[in-house]
Description:
20% of the residues lie in helices and 39% in strands. By secondary structure, the protein is α+β, with helices and mostly antiparallel strands. An 8-stranded antiparallel beta barrel has the order 9-10-11-12-13-16-18-20. Strand 4 (94-99) and strand 5 form a beta hairpin.
Amino acid sequence: MKKLLLVVSFLFFGIMALSAQTNAQKRQKFIEAAKTYLGVPYVYGGSTRSGIDCSGFIMCAYRDAGLGSLPHSAKSMYSQSTKITAAEREVGDLCFFADSSGISHVSIYIGNNQVIHAISDGPRTGVVISSLNENYWKNHYHSSGRIIGSANGAVINTTTPSTTNKPSSNKTSSKRSSKKRRYTNFSFDTSILADFDFLTTDAEHFNFHMNGGTIQTDLLFTMFDIKPGIMARYTYMHPQNTTEFSADALFNNFRVPVCAEIFIGDYFGIYTGIVLGPQLNISEPVLYGYNGTEKQLQTPLYPGIFGITAKTPDINIGNVGVSVAADISFTNYTAAPEEETLTFQEWLAAGLSFSAGLRFRLPF
């Protein structure tokens, strides 16, 4: 048990150390990621290398640089950013443009009064580099915003040939682009977690111990700051209140929560849903008392489970984002009909669980 806790702690602090980049390094990676999209065609609503729009471009470059996630909306990015003056602007800050309806376009400042962005109209379209001295951008410039901390004067290499282009809007696209619209504003995550109990059936004892493991998948809609989605788990539970692995229990002693979830920002989520398993007579949950007593349990179809989850910033390994995840959940067990009603302490001990492990954001 102590070895497992040491491993989890090592992974947690190791990944946190790796994620502690300087702001200059973050900005450099942001610009480098953005430049890999040069030449990608403009597609309204797009967020892939097959077609992308202005806010989708910023969102993808920020994600590819391992900096987290941003909303797929120029207006939302404007609201989320820290406002700065043109004189304070640094490489990697955002420049916003407006029309009569408000914020309509966003770009990344790359120095020398130039921006990189995805545009829909003009002699060339798609992801290009433009000068802020061009009449359209000069006349429609609204403000600048910061989404990465200041580099405090550190030099960031942004050397790329300049290509000037005519303006675009986040709301309009060419006829050619409109036929190729794609909506891929989703993320797909898989987690591998160790599960722990830390309460016993009587109030006098505290017993933190591993009780099984979980494989979890999450599908989130990432267009907004608040990201709705669905989550499913396979949770293996040690039999007979032991910490010993049992191959038979993989098929006879498990539960499968299926939940609706909401991620608030990038690092915190809540979920609730049903728990398949006991309802299908796949496994009969048992509450083991501190003094060796046993009590058969059952789970109402809903609410079967609810919980909160948190994760660290992603570290990119190839195309996969890796983070440390932690989770506290409560499964709403009740006593089987033939058993006495659960006491409050038994109810908490049966349902409360802590999980920790690694979360992988997969290409989607």
